[in-house]
Design a protein that fits this description.
globular; single chain; 216 residues; Rossmann fold; 10 helices; 8 strands; two-stranded antiparallel sheet; alpha/beta; 6-stranded parallel beta sheet
Length: 216
């Protein structure tokens, strides 16, 4: 392993409070029941447009109408709701100290991910950062991992994808990249195990133990 590719939401950062606040606003604006929150949360890890299509398409709502309501929430002003998971900043520091190269492969758009990474002092921690703005097909399509290989010049077996959703792990598997599943995000062990990760970390302490062992 020569490079760690991280997912962002649910893997490095606890973004559930912000995601739920944004969707609560959206559902209220559209006059829809809060029970749709569970469907929305099951789409975390997909590009925004795919999540909207899955959640609201069956209701006959088109993307522009939902997007207008969704954009009405002041996401940037509410980013104080985001927090790195306990132990993640320290783990990143140790891995950097060991010379481990790291990047981000996310379904979040480029402007917010750069802003949010800077919020936590991670401007020089991750390179490259691959978002839906750089690819035609988002997760779980393997294009993002294939682009990462092109940008780094590394083979698939030299990479490790760390993520909390089946979309992360299926993307990695389709590209022939080993993956590490984490259980502190949006999905449980059973759903993640079905995607064939190399290992499963139920919490950030276990994640630290696994990665430090693999990079020793």
């Amino acid at each position: 392993m020569r490079f760690i590719a991280w997912d962002f939401d649910g893997t490095l950062v606890d973004s559930r409070p912000l995601i739920e606040a944004g969707m609560t606003h959206t559902l209220k604006a559209l006059g829809l029941p809060m029970s749709l929150m569970d469907t929305w949360l099951s789409c975390v890890g997909l590009p925004l447009e795919a999540g909207i299509a899955h959640t609201f398409g069956p209701l006959g709502l088109d993307e522009p109408a939902v997007m207008k309501a969704y954009r009405g929430f002041a996401h940037a002003e509410e980013e104080h709701l985001l927090r790195p998971f306990p132990g993640i900043p320290e783990l990143l520091e140790v891995l950097q100290g060991r010379g481990m190269a790291m990047g981000i492969v996310t379904s979040k758009r480029r402007l917010p991910i750069l802003r949010q990474a800077a919020r936590f002092g991670w401007e020089n921690t991750f390179s490259p950062i691959i978002t839906p703005d750089e690819v035609t097909h988002g997760k779980p399509h393997p294009e993002s991992m294939e682009l990462l290989q092109t940008l780094t010049g590394l083979a698939a077996e030299d990479l490790l994808m760390v993520g909390d959703t089946p979309f992360d792990l299926d993307m990695a598997r389709a590209a022939g990249v080993p993956s590490l599943a984490v259980g502190h995000g949006f999905y449980g062990q059973e759903a993640l195990a079905a995607c064939g990760p190399r290992a499963y970390a139920p919490d950030t302490a276990a994640l630290r133990d696994i990665l430090l062992a693999w990079t020793a």
